[in-house]
From TrEMBL:
Record has Transmembrane helix as a keyword: yes
GO BP term (any one): protein secretion
InterPro entries (UniProt xref): SecG
Membrane-crossing residue ranges in chain numbering: 50-70
Subcellular localization(s) per the UniProt record: Cell membrane; Membrane
Organism phylogeny: Bacteria, Candidatus Wildermuthiibacteriota
Function field: Involved in protein export. Participates in an early event of protein translocation.
Keywords tagged on the record: Cell membrane, Membrane, Protein transport, Translocation, Transmembrane, Transmembrane helix, Transport
GO molecular function: protein-transporting ATPase activity
Protein name: Protein-export membrane protein SecG
Length: 71
């Protein structure tokens, strides 16, 4: 089991990075300072799926980290 955990953690980390990078939030650096819109409506479709995938993958990564620390 201790040999599988590092590989699972790396795979989940890669998927987590991909999911985070696929999310869209603004078109330029200026949008992070509030100059373009700033308000985003409800998440729909693929955006909602990416949001939940980020939460699930993040929770899995934290859980694997704790299990690896304890084991």
């Amino acid at each position: 089991m201790n040999q599988i955990l590092p590989f699972a953690q790396v795979i989940i980390a890669v998927f987590l990075m991909v999911v985070v990078l696929l999310q869209q939030r603004g078109t330029a650096l200026g949008s992070s300072f509030g100059s373009e819109g700033g308000f985003y409506g409800a998440r729909r479709g693929m955006q909602k799926n990416l949001y939940w995938a980020t939460i699930v993958l993040g929770a899995m990564f934290v859980a694997l980290s704790i299990v690896r620390l304890v084991a």
